Amino acid sequence: MRKETGILLAGGLGVVVGLGIFGIKKFLAKKHKDYHDYYSDFHCHFSKNKYKDDGHHGVEFLAML
Secondary structure of 9-57 in the HEC alphabet? Predict the structure, then answer.
């Protein structure tokens, strides 16, 4: 194998590995974002919900709304 061929193969392999790592990081970030959007405020502690400042009426009151 000539020297130029080895350099081209190493460069191509480096690009493929770099794109693969970037793709995996992007995929995992998307999964984390989906998880975080759904579970971050599951009990509505920080939401600007119209029922938040109504006091502690309980489940029966909220079921009637």
Answer: HHHHHHHHHHHHHHHHHHHHHHHHHHHHHHHCCCCCCCCCCCCHHHCCC
